[in-house]
TrEMBL record:
CDD domains: SufS_like (cd06453)
Name under which the protein is recorded: Cysteine desulfurase
Species this protein is from: Lacipirellula limnantheis
Gene this chain is encoded by: csd_3
SUPFAM superfamilies linked to this entry: PLP-dependent transferases
Segments forming domain Aminotransferase class V: 38-408
Amino acid sequence: MTDLATRSIDRTALLPVALRNDFPILSEEVGDHQPLAFLDNAASTQRPRQVIDALSGVYERTYANVHRGIHTLSELSTEQYETARHRVQRLINARQLHEVIFTSGTTASINTVARSWGDANLRAGDEVLLSVMEHHSNLVPWQQTAERTGAVLRHIPLTDDGRLDMEAFERLLTDRTKLVAVTAVSNTLGTINPVAEIIAKAHAAGALVLIDAAQSVPHLAVDVQALDVDFLAFSGHKMLGPSGVGVLYGKEALLDAMPPFLGGGSMINEVKLSSFTPAALPAKFEAGTPPIVPAIGMSAAIDYLQSVGLDAIHRHESELTRYAYDALSQIEGLRILGPAPEHRAGLVSFAFDRIHAHEFAQVLNDQFGVAVRAGHHCTQPLHAHLGIAASTRASFYLYNTLEEVDRLIEGVLAVQRMFAPQGRQRKRRKPDE
Ligand code: PMP
């Protein structure tokens, strides 16, 4: 263990290292023959054998297009695809099965709301309230909607430690606010936002709420009915599932009233040469051949996550995050972005004045086998607000270990020695520390 960590570890909070055996890719070597330490989970996670087997099982035994085929394989595929919808419904506790729409991911889900609900409901002067910490996929679709409708975008500012400024939020919430669209967890700062409070206050002001749950559903239990959230978006590939599938949850009455966004097969009730009538939910928002196999894979991923337990996963990640935060905060010249560990999910982003994030990522990968992300993480406005162009992000999941965090710390110290040899490595302790 690194001697930079100053606080003791609660080993009872950690998940068994043996579950790594479920993830074949984790025994790969990367860089200069280093065992892989995969700390890029906020970008995309790895898949357990159970998910890989579910995917190949479909291709080997049951695959066909869904819904319309009157033959055995189409019926089997349809049943598996609709079972996946049930699994998602149970995971987020949606009241109705048809409130779960399969999309290609969080980005597609948010775009669906921005195009469909936004174009139908927003008028010039109406306001959409976002935040400074949003991912580009919860900024750009609203910028596009604002261009089309004349709606005005406002942004909740951040506190100095990278949390939403809730007093400013309340000031910005007016009778002009039609929608509040914020992330549950920042993919750059790690901040866990008080979404229940945001939803309650937005509703009291007459606004709807969309939650970008790309970084929360994979790591924290989310109950859409308890939250009373109007729209929720997340992605399969960030929760042990395949890429190419995601979910848009919406309240039935809202989805029912919204026009379809993409047109084509499956989303219709009847088509004539010059007109169509849309299908009922959820088909109305699932035009074309849906992500059949990815959705079935996502279903297997949900089974896996629930067998481990989201609360246990959260405890594990919190412990690793605290350990990493604690050690990184001892390193001279390193700036950790975002709040103290008690306000953050399982990731730590940091920046050095004199060393570019790409240098970190390269050396960490090549010499230490540690995969991290370097860049703006699709949060350019947030980085601009922080006064930096890029940062390095280590993000954890259920299969990461203390030993991997140690390698991260060792790697960061090595980069610091390499690129800033004159610098001290540790912060000087104040006399009373
Ligand atoms: N929102 C957040 C907070 C994210 O972290 C991401 C993925 N980095 C997205 C949205 C977009 O997800 P996807 O690329 O799967 O559409």
